[in-house]
């Protein structure tokens, strides 16, 4: 077995992504920037707090992944309460997505919530997204494409979409409703060549947003170039579009957390 990994800050003030690798458990977490802009322990944002708390809970590796997901969610809530966060202000909740796998005897247990991804690549080059879901950022990215990143209606839509946490899409943010959006399962290892775990900072830039992301290009490039080669391609595409005119996105470069497990 060979493992590649990347954890890299984007163009934001902090790296809100988090990555875990320990024995048979691997995971990536994408903290969401708090819309209040507040900072907490050691100057960390709410997104940094959520992703690191969740990652540390999964590292305990002592329960089924779905139970660890619930424990991570409860831990985020407990830390927010200790920090006296107003839990009724939903846009200020610490939140993170998660994609985690645990390698077992002949099978891979997986857990997913939010927009971090688990993708299984088979030996014939095909791939399977563990939890295929509609991209909750699709409406906002479509508006950015039409009106530009700095348009005031874009920020209003960002806030509206954020209110959809654990109503329309899942995140770990301390809310009890989060568990309804947990996706989990097992996959036999017999035909799997590679398991990819990644946050959306590794998505290949696309001029036209799609409701359901197509990962064909990402999977192909990860296979041909490796994670670092794929990362370099993504960063070059973004750097060539500094004003966010060709590729709709929220900032010039997003944080990246990614793992490739090759069998």
From TrEMBL:
Coiled-coil ranges per UniProt: none
Signal peptide annotation: none
Sequence ranges assigned to domain PPM-type phosphatase in this UniProt record: 12-211
InterPro entries, per database record: PPM-type-like_dom_sf, PPM-type_phosphatase-like_dom
Top-level lineage group: Bacteria
Stored Pfam families: PP2C_2
Listed name of the protein: Protein phosphatase 2C
Source species: Desulfomicrobium norvegicum (strain DSM 1741 / NCIMB 8310)
């Amino acid at each position: 077995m060979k493992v590649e990994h990347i954890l890299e800050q984007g163009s934001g003030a902090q790296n809100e992504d988090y990555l875990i690798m320990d024995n048979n458990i691997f995971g990536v977490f994408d903290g969401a920037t708090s819309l209040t802009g507040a900072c907490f322990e050691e100057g960390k944002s709410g997104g940094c707090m959520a992703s690191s708390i969740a990652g540390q809970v999964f590292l305990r590796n002592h329960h089924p992944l779905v139970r660890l997901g619930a424990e991570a969610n409860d831990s985020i809530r407990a830390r927010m309460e200790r920090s006296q966060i107003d839990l009724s202000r939903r846009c200020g909740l610490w939140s993170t997505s998660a994609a985690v796998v645990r390698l077992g005897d002949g099978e891979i247990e997986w857990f997913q919530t939010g927009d971090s991804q688990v993708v299984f690549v088979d030996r014939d080059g095909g791939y399977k997204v563990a939890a295929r879901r509609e991209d909750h950022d699709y409406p906002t990215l479509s508006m950015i494409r039409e009106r530009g990143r700095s348009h005031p209606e874009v920020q209003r839509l960002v806030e509206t979409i954020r209110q959809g946490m654990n109503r329309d899409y899942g995140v770990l943010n301390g809310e009890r409703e989060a568990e309804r959006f947990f996706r989990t399962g097992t996959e036999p290892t017999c035909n799997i060549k590679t398991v990819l775990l990644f946050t959306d900072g590794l998505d290949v830039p696309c001029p036209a947003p799609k409701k359901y992301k197509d990962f064909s290009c990402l999977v192909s490039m990860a296979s041909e170039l490796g994670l670092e080669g794929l990362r370099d391609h993504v960063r070059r595409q973004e750097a060539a579009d500094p004003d966010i005119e060709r590729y709709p996105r929220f900032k010039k470069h997003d944080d990246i957390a990614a793992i490739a497990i090759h069998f």
